[in-house]
Amino acid sequence: MMAATRMLPHPDAHDVHLTDVLFALSDPARLDLVRLIAQDGPQTVAQCQGLEPGTPKSTLSHHLKTLREAGVVRNVPSGRQRTISLRRDDLDGRFPGLLDAVLGTAGDADLADSGRGQQS
Amino acid sequence: MMAATRMLPHPDAHDVHLTDVLFALSDPARLDLVRLIAQDGPQTVAQCQGLEPGTPKSTLSHHLKTLREAGVVRNVPSGRQRTISLRRDDLDGRFPGLLDAVLGTAGDADLADSGRGQQS
Predict the structure, then answer these.
(1) Which of A108, B10, B27, B30 has the fewest CB atoms lying closer than 10 Å?
(2) Interface pTM, i.e. ipTM
(3) Where is the HTH arsR-type domain (chains A, B) (predicted)?
(4) Average pLDDT for B60-75
């Protein structure tokens, strides 16, 4: 299980840049992933895949990499799986109020029109 | 002065999408423009150009278009110039706290590392 146990690089909290975080959150599919993890807690990659079953694994992998490299999520080995968790404390510390503002808009119109990979 | 008086399309407030706003703000040069306008009030295109004098006009034009089409700024004719203003009320109404969270981070480390068009 090499692939599942490999440690992946993550930026330290002080190396997380606002523009990278904004870019990572600017894709509807990635924003849906972050909303899922923020609401339901850490998810395995398989559970992330379940959010949009039609998405190719390579696309999901790319999205998870973008979120990890921006410092939005952690991706760590967990048994034979990998677990994706939100770096809420790091993000709240670096950019107070940003994550709440982004996620706070999830409840209304925007979920319907930005959801499910549909680009406006 | 055809170019300066032409009315450009702007999305209505209810057609402004979170992912488009996040994308528009995810570029260091565009974020600097928004910080300038938020701090100093509406700016002419020439004043925007002054923020990064080395930037080609076509690049500035592209950034202003991205910000306008995302619903972040208004670009209106003003005499022989054009004036760029922040759509703060529309953004605050659609995404409460988002703009403050993005701009609130301008004071510390992030300005130094994301400023002046430097991609991290």
Answers:
(1) A108
(2) 0.84
(3) 10-106
(4) 98
